[in-house]
Design goal:
Blueprint: H1 3-33, H2 36-44, H3 51-59, H4 64-76, H5 83-91, H6 96-108, H7 115-123, H8 128-136, E1 139-142, E2 146-149, E3 154-166, H9 177-193, H10 198-203, H11 206-213, E4 223-238, H12 239-301, H13 306-328, H14 334-339
Antiparallel strand pairs: 1-3, 2-3, 3-4
Helix pairs in contact: 4-5, 4-6, 6-7, 6-8, 9-11
């Protein structure tokens, strides 16, 4: 067969393939834009949504699958749900499926909850489905070890289990688990601290639960406290004795510091006295050095004769002799003093 005769046939085949591919692509785009299958599923489920609304959902950047499935779920559970409210909640960043599941669960459990309240709880950042489940099936919160000291100074370490259920009306704006745990811990510290001895707490641990429950710790929270059970109590350190020891050590350190201050002051005074004594000794030496000069001046002026000088030396020698004799005298014994 001539090549010129085959070429038009090949061109016809390639054009047919291109046209077929183009038709398939257009069909896929059409089915994506117009979810006929989803419309038919909604129709047989008793949910009336037009094809135009499904197409407009695409343009509004809303997932038709999420909205239609939520409406089907609500219709099967007998809960009327408005499509516009679902789209508004979806566009606000909410979780449509958990909200509808929570409405279904609340309806089955006879818990009053409408779509607006569920949507508000979801937009507040709380898991509305978990909240409904906790309201039906109470939740147990384990507190961390709480250390407190009784009046006798003995430390007790307690662990509690708090049974709570969700308070639907307080979910928006109410405090969470952290606040409940903190308040329970504060109540445990107060109950143990008001006990006279640690033994009374160990004998009646339920006294802690009674004191804590009377404080209304669930006020302003998203939970309602059903019970507080003390799971474990351990005896800790003797805080009172440790504080007394610390106080004694502090008093000892203060006394040592004051004694050291007095010692330093005494040393300073002693040094000052020595300095004054040395100064007086120096003055005496200077005065004694002036004596020969005064004697020489007295000789020159005729105020002192040779015989007067010899008498003065004799008196000086006699005084020194008497002093040396006085130093060599043996002190009297007690018997001698008694005889005298």
């Amino acid at each position: 067969m001539n090549l010129l005769n085959v070429l038009p046939l090949l061109m016809d085949d390639s054009s047919t393939i291109i046209i077929a591919v183009g038709i398939i692509i257009l069909l896929i785009i059409f089915l994506w834009m117009v979810p006929v299958g989803l419309w038919f599923t909604a129709l047989v489920s008793g949910v009336h949504v037009s094809l135009i609304q499904l197409v407009l959902m695409r343009w509004r950047k809303v997932s038709p699958n999420v909205i239609v499935n939520a409406m089907i779920m609500g219709a099967k559970a007998g809960i009327p749900i408005n499509r516009d409210e679902l789209e508004a909640h979806y566009l606000a960043g909410g979780h449509v499926k958990p909200v509808v599941n929570a409405l279904v669960s609340a309806g089955k459990a006879n818990i009053p909850l409408d779509f607006k309240a569920a949507a508000a709880i979801d937009l507040a950042g709380r898991n509305v489905l978990e909240a409904i489940q906790t309201s039906v099936n109470p939740k147990v919160i384990n507190t961390p070890p709480v250390a407190a000291v009784a009046k006798d100074g003995i430390q007790l370490i307690a662990k509690a289990r708090v049974t709570v259920r969700t308070n639907i009306r307080q979910l928006v704006g109410g405090a969470g688990e952290e606040t409940v745990i903190a308040r329970v811990g504060e109540g445990i510290v107060t109950a143990i601290g008001s006990a006279a001895t640690y033994k009374s707490v160990l004998e009646n641990p339920d006294s802690i639960s009674k004191v804590v429950l009377t404080k209304g710790l669930d006020s302003g929270t998203a939970f309602e406290i059903l019970s507080i059970d003390i799971a474990d109590i351990d005896v800790g350190k003797n805080i009172g004795a440790m504080l007394q020891m610390d106080q004694a050590n502090a008093d000892k350190n203060i006394a040592q510091a004051k004694a050291e201050e007095r010692r330093v002051m005494a040393i300073a005074q002693e040094q000052e006295m020595k300095a004054k004594a040395q100064e007086a000794r120096a003055k005496v030496i200077l005065a004694e050095a002036e004596v020969p000069l005064a004697l020489a001046d007295a000789f020159r002026n005729g105020n002192l004769g040779v015989m007067d000088y010899y008498k003065l030396e004799n008196i000086k020698a006699d005084t020194e002799m008497r002093g040396s004799i006085g130093k060599t005298v043996t002190p009297a014994t007690p018997q001698q003093k008694k005889n005298l």
